Amino acid sequence: MIELLLLFAGATLLMDGRTSHVLIAYVALAATTSVAIAPVAASTPVAAALFAVSTLLKVVLAPLGLFFFLRSNPATGNLRPSIAMPLRLVLVLGFALVSRGVARFPALSGLPMRDSIAFLVLCGVGMLIVHRNLVADMIGLLVLGVAIDLAGAVLAPQLPESIELSATFDALLATFLGLTLVRSMLGHNPGLDVEDMRKLRG
Predict the structure, then answer these.
(1) Of 188, 183, 187, nearest to 201 (Cα)?
(2) Which of 80, 81, 107, 78 minimizes the C-alpha distance to 92?
(3) Alpha carbon distance 45, 107 (integer Å)
(4) Which of 26, 43, 86, 122 lies most in the core, judged by the most C-beta atoms within 10 Å?
C-alpha cells in the first residue's frame, strides 16, 4: 500500500502542472515516507525527537510556507512544464521501469522499498528538469531530501540520529532559504520562469 501511494504521488509530481496539486502530492509523499521511517526513528529518544522535528518541517511547515507563498504570488501557480503531457507520461513510465531494474541489482536484493526509493530519486530529479518554475525546483529538492531520508533509514537503520538530523537540515534549507531567494527574484521575474532567468544571465 505504501509503495503504491509513493508511486502515485511521484507520478503526480511530474504529470501535473498546477503547483497546488503538486504540493498536495508532495505532502502525501512526505507523510507516507514518514510513516515508513517511524519504526527506525523511534529506536532512540534523540532520534525520535529529531524525527518529530523533521516530520513537522517536511509535512507541515514547508508545505504551509509554500502555500502562503503561492497565495501571495498567484503567477507561480503554474509550474510551466517544458515538455508535453504525453512525453511526461512516457518519462514517468520510464522512471518506473528503471526503478524496477535497479531493484533487481544483486547488491540491493535484501533491501526493502528499493524500487520506491529509486523512483522517488528519479522523480525529484525529474522535477528539476521538467518544470520551468523555480517553485518546482524547491519542491524537487524537498522530494530528493525525502527520498534520501528514506534510503538512509533503509540502508543504515543503526544510525537514526544522523539520518534525522540530516533530513531536518535538508528540509529547513530547501524550504526557507529557497523561499527567501525566490522572493528576492520576484521583482525581476514575477512568474519565476527558469528560462527567463537564463536569458537575464546572458
Answers:
(1) 188
(2) 81
(3) 32
(4) 26
Q: Phi-psi region for residue 128, left (φ > 0), alpha (ψ -120 to 50) or beta?
A: alpha
How far, in whole angstroms, is CA 154 from its chain's centroid? 18
Query: Which of 176, 179, 182 is closest to 197 using CA atoms?
Result: 182
In tens, the pLDDT along 44-58 reads: 788 788 888 888 888
Beta-ladder partners of 18: 78
pTM for the whole structure: 0.81
Q: What residues are paired with 131 via a beta bridge?
A: 81
Beta pairing partners, 133: 193
Asked if residue 99 lies in contact with residue 122, where contact means CB atoms within 8 angstroms, the answer is yes
Please report how many Cα atoms fall inside a 13 Å half-sphere around the Cα of residue 199, on the Cβ side: 7
Beta carbons within 8 Å of 51's beta carbon, 6+ residues apart: 34, 37, 38, 41, 42, 160, 164
Listed by start position, the domains of the chain span 2-201
